[in-house]
Amino acid sequence: MRPWLNKIKSELEKLTENPPFHTVYIGGGTPTLMDPEMLTELFSTIRKQVPLQIDAEISIECNPETMTTEKAQILGNSVNRVSLGIQSFSPVARERIGRRGDPEKIFEAVSLLRTYGIRNIGCDLIYALPCQTIPEWEEELRQALALEINHLSAYSLSVEEGTPLALRYQENHETDDLSFEMEKSTRRILQDAGLSRYEISNYAKTGFSCQHNTNVWYGETYLGLGPSACSFNGVDRFTQSLPIRKWLEGEAPVYDRISELERLGEIFIMGLRTVNGWKISDFEKIAEKSPLKIWNQQLASLETKGWLVMTDDRIALSTAGLDFWNEAAMEIL
């Protein structure tokens, strides 16, 4: 951890001349594995070296089982948003996907964070877990809502080929159908609880959507620090090397250079992940032309399928279109 933190600090120290940042997102799922001294050192460097807007959103991802009183106090003085990586409250389900930790730690972590002033708390859950039923998933949602969270990300389990989980668990059409039904339950239960869907997998109370992710979906530039971190400068996307030793040695990032039209298509379709979609004038500020002129035939095709809703000033996917976002993206790209 020490070499990692030293390099992160050296990169942060280069940012003093940048325009103020809107958001800071400390992610990767496990930053709270750092001991209190290192967490303090990281936040001290951010405060000193990173120019921030007065109302900047500062988020950190947190493993509930790593939370302590001392760490909660540090976060209370340093961030204004915490995302808890819960995945599941069920000990059986957690064991099936290789997720360690005692679910009771989740409730303890939330209590500690609130004790030290963190009010904007969200969590991540995964559905369509091995052998999971719809009633079991609905109970997961109710347990999350009992924490009085402001934000919830709900992701369908994606099993990567070659992983240990893939050897034990095979996806099939029945799993796909079950996943779709669980997603519908998610919309209904969270909407009734006051968490509106604002992106394919994200729900929030009014005023609590994740500004960092929203900026990325709408084509804003961002800088990623750390092994495998991704950045976008408005033209090229580039990714730092993944093996941490190569990153520490200064291996150059890998650039994703594509044509201007392809990049505009990528930005446009990412904005269509959101429920509100694009205000046409906002996209025109980026592209200097209307999406109706760039993708007229493709948009007409999506509208005919019932996947797209167009008004005088806005283009957004319908509920059905959000369900088939991958297919819609392929038509644009």
What does this structure look like?
- The chain has helices at residues 2-12, 36-49, 69-76, 91-96, 104-115, 134-146, 164-168, 173-192, 211-217, 244-248, 260-271, 280-287, 291-294, 296-304, 319-323, 325-332; strands at residues 21-26, 52-62, 81-87, 121-127, 151-156, 196-199, 202-204, 230-232, 237-239, 254-256, 278-279, 308-310, 314-317.
- 44% of the residues lie in helices and 19% in strands.
- Helix 1 packs parallel to helix 2 and helix 3 (69-76) packs across helix 5.
- The mean pLDDT is 94.
- The radius of gyration is 21 Å and the shape is globular.
- It has two domains: 2-215, 2-Layer Sandwich (Transcription Regulator spoIIAA), CATH 3.30.750.200; 259-333, Arc Repressor Mutant, subunit A, CATH 1.10.10.
- The longest helix is centred in the middle third of the chain and has 20 residues, at 173-192.
- It has a seven-stranded mixed sheet, covered by helices on one side. The chain has a three-stranded antiparallel sheet with strand order 8-9-10, with no helix packed on it.
- With 333 residues, it is an alpha/beta fold.
- The protein has 16 helices and 13 strands.
